[in-house]
Write a structure and sequence with these properties.
Strand content: under 5%
Number of helices: 23
Number of strands: 5
Shape: elongated
Number of domains: 2
Largest sheet: 5 strands, mixed
Radius of gyration: 26 Å
Strand order of the largest sheet: 2-1-3-5-4
Structural class: mainly alpha
Distance between the termini: 75 Å
Length: 676
């Protein structure tokens, strides 16, 4: 391949080898890569089942997929294909297939997620190594591996892991394409993005503008050819994602599960609405009204989660689900700060330094192109996350973790090879100092946890920055700059590494997992989130497990149904889907299922935000009784945050025709004797 596009100086010649030729790899580089990948595998696979079922919503879908091929294909929540999860099914394909091969359980779900971390680290290493050499690649991979949000989500069963793996694969393919203007590699980048779209829809495409711009600017071929190649990549993206969209259109809607989150049972409605522009513009909140908590919303619903390790009397809100401060500070503060911000300022500084140092380089300069790839990815995706008005979890920031890692490594390497100039020297010292000071500040927000660490890392960062600057005056002492650089890397990575290790040591359950040491008073452990698990109800579990109908029961919202599916091993009809507002089933469809003896029970969980019975008076037509309000996922009332229960007519009809029975914490209606 020749050199990787790294311009050297006469004052500090570069010693890196050609990463494209395995025969030239140095022994320490080979050993470093082995340590990086094996270390990542051990770190992420260690005690992998500590999270149990993780997010029970996706665990139930994995269970369904392990039992029914159609449920696997569509990502159904239940094995009888009533309704899907509210995301595309790619993540469910991976977990469902693993559970089919090895049996359904925590390990068979979580191990593929951890292996995706190893794959993402390897791909990021390979991409950055082609830009800045193998040492830079090792640094990029290490930064990604110790990022707290990566340690959280690559050991969890949400779709984010496979999405980020595919985004990283697309970046790697783009770097390969940039080397020789390869139509094949840029098309493969499009394929990777197409499957990223099938993981979390538009979020998986946030890297697209950066990749397209880098190729348009820097590919070593005429403009017309570059445009043709990009059209080919776009076509590959459309084909690799569009086949599934077409499948949902051609497959009769009456013969497949309802596509949760859509208003008309169509995939594109889900893409453009609930999981698309509505999420960015703020029209998919649980209250249906826009940003901010509504009346009666729980602490988790408003994002008011305690800081990890902070006494209950001093806890500050740093958010899990919604309630985030919109704007540029979002990624630097609160729970976002703990999960992703450790090297974010350094990455932004690195992007500026790379552009400045390569300003006069040829159009095809690979280092500057790498800055566009990773810096552009960080800026575009970061701005979207910062200004999203809709539902947002801090763990969404996993999507920019590879961008931060790649940009820090490329910028650090560029300043290192230019350390003979004042730009390189001051730039390198600034990167080290920025990372160290910012890590010190983040650790200071949780000052009761390991307070000695933050001061030790701050002193080490200051020492390293000074040593880097002073090394210019001590040229005969060749080891000084190398020792200073190593100290700087330790200072920069010490904080996130400590938080990542603490994250791995804690169990994480529910829909809003968070990082770091265990909170002293956070309900439900680390990351109970808005959609956590309901309390155990063995009596109800036994009752449902003994049924023989298509669905053992019907209950409002998917998360409540998922809890019951996992505890009973039966299919449960999730009325209204994830939010409770999906138009499935209609009252007529529900009555047909009851008449056909396909549902045995209708269940209301009598547990609200304060763990008290939900008793919203509502006189049922034709019956002088009142019904409990149907509880949603994790005990959230169906009318939480001021939203009216969209399926109250079903509850009204049930209370008008059946007698309630209390089973544990639930109110149960036996539907089995209904004849119409």
């Amino acid at each position: 391949m020749g050199e990787c596009g790294v311009t050297t100086t006469t004052e500090a010649p570069e010693q890196s080898t050609d990463p494209a030729e395995p025969g030239r790899i140095a022994g320490w580089e080979r050993a470093g890569l082995i340590v990086l990948l094996v270390g990542t595998a051990v770190m992420y696979l260690w005690n992998i089942t500590v999270n149990g079922m993780g997010n029970q919503f996706y665990a139930a879908a994995a269970q369904a997929g392990s039992r029914n091929w159609e449920a696997l294909l569509f990502g159904s929540l239940d094995s009888e294909n009533f309704i899907t999860v509210d995301k595309p099914p790619l993540s469910q394909w991976v977990m469902g297939l693993s559970c089919r091969m090895f049996g359904f359980g925590s390990a068979s779900m979580m191990i593929p997620q951890a292996l995706m971390a190893v794959g993402a680290v390897a791909l990021l290493y390979a991409a950055v190594a082609r830009i800045g050499g193998r040492a830079a690649g090792l640094l990029a991979g290490a930064v990604l591996a110790v990022t707290p949000v990566a340690a959280l989500m690559f050991r969890f069963n949400n779709p984010d892991a496979v999405m980020v793996l595919l985004m990283t694969a697309a970046a790697y393919c783009t770097v390969r394409a940039l080397e020789r203007a390869s139509a094949k590699w840029i098309a493969l980048a499009g394929v990777a993005l197409g499957f990223a779209f099938l993981s979390k829809m538009l979020e998986g495409l946030m890297v697209l503008p950066a990749l397209g711009l880098a190729y348009l600017i820097a590919a070593p071929t005429p403009l017309r050819t570059r445009l043709v190649h990009l059209v080919g990549a776009a076509t590959a993206l459309i084909v690799s994602s569009g086949w599934y969209v077409l499948l949902t259109v051609l497959w009769p809607s009456s013969a497949r599960p309802y596509l949760a989150g859509s208003t008309d049972n169509s995939f594109m409605n889900l893409v453009l609405g609930y999981n698309g522009f509505a999420r960015v513009l703020g029209r998919n909140h649980p209250d249906g009204q826009g940003p901010g908590p509504g009346p009666g919303a729980s602490a988790f619903a408003t994002g008011q989660l305690p800081d990890a390790g902070t006494p209950a009397t001093e806890q500050s809100a740093h958010g899990g689900f919604g309630g985030q401060t919109q704007g540029l500070p979002r990624l630097f503060t609160g729970e976002f700060g703990y999960e992703i911000a450790w090297l974010l300022p350094a990455a932004l500084l690195a992007a500026v330094l790379v552009i400045v140092s390569r300003w006069r380089a040829p159009r095809t300069d690979l280092v500057r192109a790498g800055g566009i790839v990773f810096g552009g990815w960080l800026i575009v995706d970061g701005l979207v996350l910062s200004y999203m008005q809709g539902t947002i979890h801090p763990y969404y920031s996993l999507s920019i973790a590879p961008a931060i890692a790649g940009m820090v490594a490329i910028g650090g390497h560029e300043m290192w090879v230019r350390r003979g100039s004042w730009l390189g020297l001051v730039g390198l010292a600034s990167l080290v100092l920025t990372a160290g000071v910012w890590g010190w500040w983040i650790l200071g927000r949780n000052s009761s946890w390991f307070p000695q660490l933050r001061w030790a890392l701050l002193l080490l960062a200051v020492f390293a920055a000074l040593a880097i600057v002073l090394s210019r005056a001590a040229r005969p002492v060749r080891w000084l700059s190398t020792a200073a650089l190593i100290a700087g890397v330790v200072a920069a990575l010490g904080g996130p590494t400590a938080y990542a290790i603490e994250t791995i040591g804690q169990p994480h359950l529910g829909g809003g997992p968070t990082v770091g040491p265990a909170a002293t008073s956070q309900p439900g452990g680390r990351g109970g989130g808005m959609f956590g698990e309901n309390a155990d109800n063995p009596e109800l579990d036994h009752l449902l497990a003994a049924t023989g109908t298509t669905w053992s029961a019907a209950i409002d919202r998917s998360s409540a149904a998922a809890d019951l599916e996992l505890s009973t091993g039966t299919a449960v009809m999730a009325v209204g889907g994830f939010t409770g507002s999906d138009p499935a089933p209609t009252l007529g469809q529900f009555i047909d299922d009851i008449t056909g003896h396909r549902v045995t029970y209708y269940i209301v969980e009598n547990r609200g935000d304060d763990h008290q019975p939900n008793t919203a008076p509502n006189t049922a037509p034709g019956a002088g009784t009142t019904r409990p309000s149907a509880a949603g996922a994790g005990g959230i009332p169906a009318n939480a945050a001021g939203r009216e229960n969209r399926h109250s007519e079903i509850a009204d009809w049930v209370t008008a025709h059946f007698q309630p029975t209390t089973v544990g914490s639930a109110t149960v209606y036996d539907l089995s004797d209904y004849t119409g």
